Amino acid sequence: MSEYYVHESSIVEDRSEIGPGTKIWHFSHIMPDVQIGKNCVIGQNTFIASGVKIGSNVKIQNNVSIYDGVILEDNVFLGPSMVFTNVVNPRSHINRKDQYQITLVKKGATVGANATIVCGTTLGQYAFIGAGAVVTKEVPDYGLVYGNPGILQGWMCQCGERLKFNQDNNENETTCSSCGNKYLRLNDSKIKPAS
Question: What pTM was computed for the model?
Fold first, then answer.
């Protein structure tokens, strides 16, 4: 008996490493030389290209394609039908495989449904990308980004609740109303846990 689950309609090519407890659901295709950690959920109709590295406890919802050059760290969440790119200026008649760019999604980050992540960007730890956002530049740790183009709109706690800093009083510390974690604002584009 396998330590992971693959639905009978899915294809897992040779030389891929899949961690225990991972589930690969209907109509998905895992290419050769993919690394997937433990306890991941790979939703229906997901494509994962050769060379992709995925950490543990990653949740990939339905209809997501993860192309060469994408790295997902532990505890990442990818919403339904979100999109990664891997070339900035694609043309069907020009082979640009040597121009693939690295896209790094750091530990705990969330990408909402139908968002687009343009290649060559890094999404910081516990960053939160809203549904439908188009991300064209780096997102800081705990950053909340939404819109087209995606703009830093605020901050998110590690638990997934929006953080509120009192701008009127120039407060540089806040406490999450849900879990009680404390955060320090270092400047307009960077925060960190207080402890």
Answer: 0.95
